[in-house]
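notes to self, project folder thing:

trying the whole complex as one job this time. last attempt i did each chain seperately and stitching them together was a nightmare. two parts in total, labels are on each line so i dont mix them up again. if this works i'll redo the older ones the same way
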Amino acid sequence: MDSKTKEYPVIWLQCATCTGCLISILNSVSPTIKNILIDEVIPGKHVSLRFNATVMAGAGDLALAIAEETVRKQKGGYLLIVDGAIPTAKNGIYGSIGEKNHQPVSMVERVVEFGKDALAVVAMGTCATFGGIPAAAPNPTGCQGVKELLESKGIDTPVINISGCPPHPDWFVGTLASILLSGLPAVDQLDDFGRPLPFYGKLIHENCQRRAYFDEGKFARKHGDPGCLYELGCKGPITYADCPTRLWNTGVNWCVGSGGGCHGCTQPEFPDLVSPLYVKTIEIETAPNK
Amino acid sequence: MGKIIIDPITRIEGHLKIECTVENGVIKEAHSSGMLFRGFEIILRGRDPRDAQIITQRICGVCNLCHAMASTLNLDSAFGLADKIPDNGRILRNLAAGLHVVQDHILHFYHLAALDYVDVTKVAKYEGSDADLNSIKAFIGRGELGPFVPRYEGDYRLSDDLDRAAVSHYVKALEIRRKGHEAVAMLTGRIPHTASIVPGGMSEIPTVDKIASILWRLNELRSFVDNVYIPDVLAVAGVYADYFEVGAGCKNLLSYGAYDLEGKNPDYTRRRRLFQQGTISADLKLQPLDLSKITEEVRHSWYESNTSKLHPTAGKTVPADEKGGAYSWLKAPRYDGRVYEVGPLAQMVTTYAGGNSMVKSLVDSTLAHFKATPAALFSVLGRHAARALAAKYIADSMGEWLLQLQPGEPTFVPYELPEEAKGVGIIDAARGALGHWVEIKDKKIANYQCVVPTTWNASPRDDSGTPGAIEQALIGTRVKDEANPFEIVRIVRSFDPCIACAVHLITPKGSELGRFRIF
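result (full assembly):
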């Protein structure tokens, strides 16, 4: 009941998404998702999740009204999180959220409506950052990432990209905590793709537990073999993320650890320019169905 | 006559809109529409077939592991490996899928469905020492109640004690389902979107330390299912017992079965599975599964009418944007020309009728608890109870599987990519019958079709005009308060819809929906 608690309104909009980003965030360990939503995740500061269709109690117009009210009354004072790409083909008819005047409101309109007056947009996941899987060739719905869409509409709200399919919960929580503690990240704290450097600053390959095998020329020839997974298509050598040191799901494992290899899911090239996924990187020439 | 339109339906996966026409307080017409199209089958065409299990996981980040399973079974069958997966690989896959589904059922009840029955704001008056409840009390005191308010008002019936217990379990369930995901990730690298489930088996090798660690995470899940989840479902059902008579639906159930108990029969419709393959109706007589009876009808969907009634192996997706009489972006899958519901209720009832003693005792004791007959299963609460009992049945089966693993032994069989092949992969996912079909030409995907659980459940009317399963469950329901239509959302959520799955292949025509509105 601390009256000095500062509320940070957040609207979380889900577009052409599989909801995997949100499920990944539910796996945050410390703080837990409960700490993030209920408690003061940073002392004196509380994240007020006004709209998120997967978790919120209300439905329909009732639910959307509170998001619309936040946008109207708190210009520049709320954070917009977007997961999923935005389908832009045919005036955005491939995806809509709610209605106005008995007509569906496209995801393009929603991202513009909620994004133009936001303090910043956090683009969650490779779909929202770079288009990702729904934008894969032949991109049937004209999917774009948030930054590309907003720029095409002349909107200059800052966009912070948290790529990954899905992103690690720490990448999101760490970025959120950083915003609450010290404001939006400076340009030199982001990489060329607008991603926070602490999480995306190094190649998977640099810190990989199987790196010694690579250096010794010991390569796995089939799934389940010990050795470097490069010959099986591992995209660690061209993928930027801290998975090898951070590990996943409370640190129990990661893609390379399981022998499956890295699929390059944090990269703008995912999936077309890193596939076929089980062909070694140097032999991939073009996207498979371009 | 009035319309109730709920868009978006929240606390489900994906973008769903429900429109109901209400006359004298009773739902006369119901239409469900998915509001997103991504075109996965189109994206898959021309790709390396092995990439399908990575790409199709992204159909849904909630059910991703189920898509990985259906896709690898599909590729196994296309590559001629359906009867050659090493037992170690088969069991690892079962464990990954089972752990995933148990955490998913917990997630559905507590984090998607419960807020229809539980009033979080009652915790404001809590005067005890539970740390979670006190932190929620502090949260309420700050006055910013998102994401728990706004909501429908007027029908939260739990006593203060039950209500607080449920809120406390909502928080506990977040931790338990996370631990379920940890156990999955030990076998799959990470989750959502796993790395190790591949055609030919698994890339992960079981080790003794992993087996022990998974066993104790499993024990935590089992304890939660037995001591919290099932008691909570029973308690909620006791207070909202009228929902045993709401949302019956079509009363035809279909299950593909799940969790292969042997790997030598290449026919997935016949191999021994933990859940029984088959179809069943209110007479509770089990019928064998025949995949050739599946068709997709499109008279009320925006597709060319000459593509109607095709089997998924011959499936076509030809948009017909201006087609009159269409109102949905989903096709209408039918089995033997009839509407079928899929999901944990179908899994439990087919397995019950198949004579499984553990499932019989679980179902019979639950029915006895409520002094109910099997007819009560076809209802909102029947679906929730079946989901909880299915979670227990899976969780209780997994300890033995863990001990069957051979540490350090192979989980994968090498293969050659075929020039040309056809495949099918079927499994009951968390939300029901999931089928993937592939045709390979020149070592590339020529055609890939998925018929997913929510397409069965949320389908529109078929060629004969018969409404889909959720539509049927809504029609005839009395809505007490049209401004707070609890009945509609409780019915819809009892199916645990997953719209990202259902609309992966539909074609959009958003503006056309206006044609069907009556205001």
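what i see at first glance: Residues 45 and 445 of chain B are 5 Å apart (CA to CA).
need to look closer tmrw
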